[in-house]
Each structure stands twice: as structure tokens, then as C-alpha cells.
Write a structure and sequence with these properties.
The chain has 479 residues and is α+β, with helices and mostly antiparallel strands. It is built from nine helices and 23 strands. The protein folds into two domains: 219 residues, Thrombin, subunit H, CATH 2.40.10.120; 141 residues, Roll (Pdz3 Domain). The protein has a six-stranded antiparallel barrel with strand order 3-4-5-8-7-6. A six-stranded antiparallel β-barrel has the order 10-11-12-15-14-13. Strands 17, 18, 19, 20, 21 and 22 form a six-stranded antiparallel sheet that branches. The chain is elongated and about 110 Å long.
Length: 479
């Protein structure tokens, strides 16, 4: 306990927190008496407090500062909101003198369907309206057997376009390859069951037939007149779901040579959006003419997603082939050299001591065939057809595509250290039945250890009776 004789304040800690029998709740104190001060040194008198037991305790006063601040904020928000609303209303009517919101009163022009005559230049909306009824959506399904002997059904989607009023439809071969059933959907909602008339993987073309009459047809244009920079439109079914979509772009290259899965193609390159499902659809110019057959299969590179790259088969290159398939069910008159050949390699040049590492090596020549008549024989290396250099089998296939049976070309070949030229007239490639095509595919899928056997028992070649010539002849087809 602390007690000062000169001060009436007392402070005690000894009984703090202990209960007391005489404890009485404290009463509110009265207002303190103002202290009396004296200017004499040491004469300070502390304030004294008095307590009136009859006086009722007063309720403690709540702080009103927070309430005032809250009320002030609400008032400001209310006034600000009112000002903002009023200002917005006022801004619609007045501002710098008089401000109004401008609204167009233009009446949208209806898109008219134009007649595609090769003379009427249209805008993209008119091209779409004038041709979309001739475009179709193609949905095909195929049934196959897996390694466990189970039947597996797969489905694919693509596009196509009607070329005759009685129902012939053009599309890509890979869209319907191996299909067991094909359905065609029209823009007006009609659905048809389609039959495969025929196709050719070398040109990636197929023709379908539906039973109909007076169907809307496209107009084929001239792809040889396409220029880099021309505006083009692609109508199709990207992703197989976004049916009858139109994308727009320009021609990036009018004559692009590309190689897909070992097959050379001459393509129109465009920067219009081309996606899976667009395959087989038409590529059109602003006159509404079909100048190409869109192929999404060739719009990717090594499973890499690309942008701004699309390709279409020039319609002028395949128009005769389309007619051929319609009339004969397959491509006839395909040029045929009647030889078995393969691409020359560095290993072959080293093994057989040949001074040439590029070209097409002749493994065999059919008796009385085009190659034999031209004087070609085993061991010759074809290096040129007319003015086109031949470095690989792809080059030779590309050179053949520009010709038909009966055409004559100049062939340059290398033999025993010297170059020779000869005139070769193409034979017609023998037609293959569906059974023969299936047998050929099965042979190509056989394991590599199934070699043909000893065809040359007295051969001086290595590998115990058959040589590399035999292997190439076995695994490569005839040309």
C-alpha cells in the first residue's frame, strides 16, 4: 500500500482480485469540484468528489461520432447518385449546347440470289446465298475388325458439292474411303443415302450418287485463270458440326506443288480458314464458280497445327477425271510406263558402284510394255521426263499426272556412265477390280520378313539367291 500524507490518492494492490464481504457496487461519481489553485509554492489542493446516495445513476452516453460519419457517407452517396443520374439524363439532352445520340435509320438490303454465269461479280454474301444450296454435308461410317477380332465402327464427316441435277456429288476420296454407309445432308434439311460411284486415291477424288431430280448444282470455273491475291470463299462443315460455314481469304499461291503421304499434288494455296470437315467442299471465286476442291487433309504439317494455310485441288486438273469416274466408276486412261521402279539412294549407288545418287531406278520392265518398247531395261536410272527433272518416285508420279494414255514423252535415263534419251508412249494402266485392290492393300500390309523367294537361283547377286532388285520389285508397285 502506498499512502502519502500530502496527497489524498491511495493505491492498494494487496487485495486486488479477492472477494470482500463488505463489497458494494460502485456508484457513479458526481462531477468533480474544480480544484483550487494557489500561487503559493506547494499549496495545490486536489479535487474532491462527493457522492449522493439518493441520486439515480445516469445511463452512459454512447459515442455519436461513428453515427455522424456513417450518416454523412450515406448522404454523400445519395446526393452523388442523384447527381449522376440527373447528369446522365441531362447529357442525353444538353451538353455543349445540344448533344444527341446518333442512331442509323439505314434499311438493311436483302441479299439477292444471283445467277452464276461467269460474268456477274458478286460480294461474298451474294456468293453464299447463290451457291450454298448446292453444297452438302457428308457423314460416313465404317466397320472394321480390331486385333482382338471385335467389330469396331468409326465415323467421319466432310463436305461436297452437287455437279448434276440428278444427284452426282464430288468430294475427297479420303472423306469416304472404306465407308460402309454414307449419308448426305442438304442445306434445306433434306437427307439422302448416298452410294459411292468410284474414286481415286492418286487424285484424292470420289464421286457419290443420290437419288434426286432438279437438284441445285454448282458451276465449274477455270482454275488456270486464278491469280495470287484473288479473293476466294470456302463453304463447308468445319469440325463436322459447324455446318454450311463460309470462310474468306485470298490466293497465296496459284500453283503450289506439295507432297502428302508420298503422293504429289498440285494445289491452290489460300489463307482462308480450312479445318477438318471442310474436305471435299468447294473453293469459289467472287463469280460463284467452283475453282477448287478444298482439302483439309493437306492443311496440316506433321501433325502440327498451322494458321493461314489451306489447300484446294484445282478443278481444271481433275474435271476430266470427275467425268471419267461418273461414266466408268473409276479413272480410265491413266498413263502407264509398264515398269517396276523406285527412288535411287546413296546406299544403292555405293553397293552397285553407280556414279548417280538421284533419279528413279528401273528394277524390271514388262514385256511388250511402254518401257520395253522405249528401250528401257533393268538398271537404268530415269532422270528426266520432257523438261521435268526426276529425282524421286514422287517426281515421276507428278510427271505422269500431266498426261494420259497414248501421250508421248521424251525420257532421259542414265546407263553405264552415260545419258540417253528415248521416246516413250504411255500405255493405259490396267483397271483393277475391288477384289484386286483389296489384295494389293493386304500385300502392302504384310510383314517385312515375308520375302518373295528365290527368283534368281543362278544369280551372282548377294543375299543368297535374290537381291535388292527383287526386294524393291516386291515391295514397290508397277508404274
Amino acid at each position: 500500500m502506498y499512502n502519502d500524507e500530502n496527497n489524498t490518492y491511495r493505491y492498494s494492490r494487496g487485495d486486488e482480485g479477492l472477494p470482500r464481504d463488505d463489497y458494494q457496487p460502485q456508484q457513479p461519481m458526481q462531477e468533480p469540484v474544480q480544484p483550487q489553485y494557489s500561487y503559493q509554492q506547494g499549496s495545490y489542493e486536489a479535487p474532491r468528489y462527493s457522492y449522493d446516495p439518493e441520486q439515480k445513476p445516469r445511463k452512459p452516453q454512447k459515442s455519436r461520432t461513428g453515427l455522424k460519419i456513417t450518416a454523412l457517407i450515406l448522404a454523400c452517396a445519395l446526393v452523388g447518385g442523384a447527381c449522376g443520374f440527373g447528369g446522365a439524363l441531362l447529357a442525353r439532352r444538353v451538353g455543349y449546347g445540344k448533344t444527341t445520340i446518333q442512331e442509323s435509320n439505314r434499311t438493311a438490303a436483302e441479299v439477292e440470289i444471283q445467277k452464276v454465269d461467269g460474268k456477274t461479280l458478286m460480294d461474298p454474301a451474294e456468293v453464299y446465298a447463290s451457291t450454298v444450296n448446292s453444297v452438302v454435308s457428308i457423314n460416313s461410317s465404317a466397320v472394321s475388325t480390331n486385333i482382338f477380332g471385335q467389330r469396331v465402327e468409326s465415323a467421319s464427316s466432310g463436305s461436297g458439292f452437287i455437279v448434276t441435277a440428278d444427284g452426282y456429288i464430288v468430294t475427297n476420296y479420303h472423306v469416304v474411303e472404306g465407308a460402309s454407309s454414307i449419308a448426305v445432308d442438304m442445306y434445306n434439311g433434306d437427307t439422302y443415302k448416298a452410294a459411292l460411284v468410284g474414286g481415286d486415291p492418286d487424285y484424292d477424288l470420289a464421286v457419290l450418287k443420290i437419288e434426286g431430280k432438279d437438284l441445285p448444282v454448282v458451276t465449274l470455273g477455270d482454275s488456270t485463270k486464278v491469280n495470287v491475291g484473288d479473293t476466294v470463299l470456302a463453304i463447308g462443315n468445319p469440325l463436322g458440326e459447324l455446318t454450311f460455314s463460309q470462310s474468306r481469304g485470298s490466293v497465296s499461291s496459284a500453283n503450289r506443288a506439295i507432297n502428302v503421304d508420298g503422293t504429289p499434288f498440285n494445289m491452290i494455296q489460300v489463307d482462308a480458314s480450312i479445318n477438318p470437315g471442310n474436305s471435299g467442299g468447294p473453293l469459289m471465286n467472287l463469280y460463284g464458280e467452283v475453282i477448287g476442291i478444298v482439302s483439309a487433309k493437306y492443311s496440316s504439317y506433321a501433325n502440327t497445327v498451322v494458321e493461314g494455310l489451306g489447300f484446294a485441288i484445282p478443278i481444271s486438273d481433275v474435271q476430266a477425271i470427275i467425268t471419267d469416274i461418273m461414266e466408268n466408276g473409276q479413272v480410265t486412261g491413266k498413263p502407264y510406263l509398264a515398269i517396276t521402279a523406285g527412288t535411287m539412294t546413296q546406299e544403292m549407288a555405293t553397293q552397285y558402284q553407280i556414279d548417280l545418287t538421284e533419279g528413279v531406278f528401273v528394277y524390271s520392265v514388262e514385256k511388250d510394255g511402254a518401257g520395253a518398247k522405249a528401250g528401257l531395261r533393268l538398271g537404268d536410272i530415269i532422270t528426266k521426263v520432257d523438261d521435268k527433272e526426276i529425282k524421286t518416285m514422287d517426281d515421276l508420279s507428278a510427271a505422269k499426272k500431266g498426261h494420259k494414255a497414248g501421250d508421248t514423252v521424251t525420257v532421259t535415263y542414265y546407263r553405264e556412265g552415260q545419258y540417253y534419251t528415248t521416246e516413250l508412249t504411255f500405255d493405259e494402266q490396267p483397271l483393277m477390280t475391288e477384289t484386286e485392290q483389296e489384295d494389293t492393300q493386304q500385300q502392302q500390309q504384310q510383314p517385312n520378313n515375308q520375302y518373295p523367294g528365290n527368283q534368281y537361283p543362278n544369280s551372282q547377286y548377294p543375299y543368297g539367291g535374290f537381291d535388292m532388285f527383287d526386294l524393291y520389285e516386291y515391295f514397290f508397285g508397277r508404274n
